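User: Run a structure prediction on this.
Assistant: Running it now.
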Amino acid sequence: MRKRDATIIIRLVADVLQAYGFYLLVPLTVALVAAESSQAIAFGVEAVVLLPASWLIQRRTTSEGVQKRHAAMALALIWIAVSLLSAVPFLAHRMGVVDALFESFSGWTDTGLSMVPEPQALPLSLGIFRVLMQWASGLGIVILMLFLYGPSSRAAQSLFQAEGRFEDFTANVWRLGRTIILIYVGYTVAGFLALWASGLPPFDAFMQAITFLSTGGFSTNSVGVGWYGVLPSVAAMVLMLFGGISFSSHQALLSGDVRKFFRNPEVRALLVIVPVVSGLLVLEQWLTEGSVAGGALPSVFYTISAISTCGAGTTLSLSQAPDVWVFTLMFLMISGAAYGSTTGALKLWRLMIIGQVIGREIRRPFYPAQAVLPIMMGNNRIHGRTVIEVTAYALLYLALGLAGSLTFMLFGHRTLHALFTVFSAQGNVGLNVIPEASFYGMHPLLKLQLIGHMLIGRMEIFPLLYLIRGLRE
């Protein structure tokens, strides 16, 4: 890597770390007001170090000449850096090093797997910090930075694309970022009001609204929103669905273009998958257990939680659910919801493209040899290069998940539990089927492995590969 390349990457990282330094002022203020001295020291020291340090780096570097590889490497470093820094407040709470790292990486990758058995027992500032990580992560570090100040327009575009966002850059890039944030904030406020009106205390309503919309899954209690009853669960499912739909589709809906919203193939697929799979889960439970414990609500809730990759739980623990449920939900976790949303996993658009490729090859023998059978997503034709990239990514994603599952099996975990846990982490979902005692007491090496899967899923593999290649050069 040339010196100029390193300078550009360092500048991009410094831009985000400065935003993170300002972000720390929120939990710091809470810690000071709540007289939580150890947390105040942890947040305060980090802010005092990061803000002037990032400012000095910005003064001596530039992001001019940034290319996609610079942005990809910077994003990989950013996700790792903010996750490492965010482990400090958990260490100040006397969590073990591995558990503190696990909680931090889970928050910033928007996963939601947790090493905190009783979130309600956390200090107030740390509980807020833990949830706000997911709000920022669900929105996307790039979008948040873009809204606050941002580097150059070209840097912003490169960062957008490196994070897997392909919004229309013919529009003003800053206006685009601010529009996305306004939609996100608006839905957060609406979700808070809906949860509050359905019976949640104001603080819990706000925290839960953040985690459902960001599809992060952290909760303010050890059970989840089901703790509060049916109405809050319904509000939560709506928020999770909103989080699973792309920002561009939300913009069309809010601007009154309902036809454009429903023309989106991913939206249509999502609205078909949820009722079909929910009904299938009800049928599976009835066939295996002879009854439907808890009614249909847990079936719908976990279907939406899995496909939106929120990973939120309810009163029916998945560790007590039938294996056929676990197996079915695993496919939803691998899928994920719409591209350009807050969700993780493969995304529906990739699976729809692969499905069309398979369908095309099945139909090909029935057409003349010279026939052209294009791959279409809505009104857009998908070119061959994109098809190859999508297929390669999906195969690599599945291979990494299967390899990781094998490690869990070597440590004595059941095959189904191993597959579910690894794909839950890699899809940034957060659902868990391992009994609590075994999960919290998991071998540290397995916890570190899950951190790796969380990063792979959040960075969509290739930025991490760019970083490894750059460090080798």
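Residues 1-161 form one domain.
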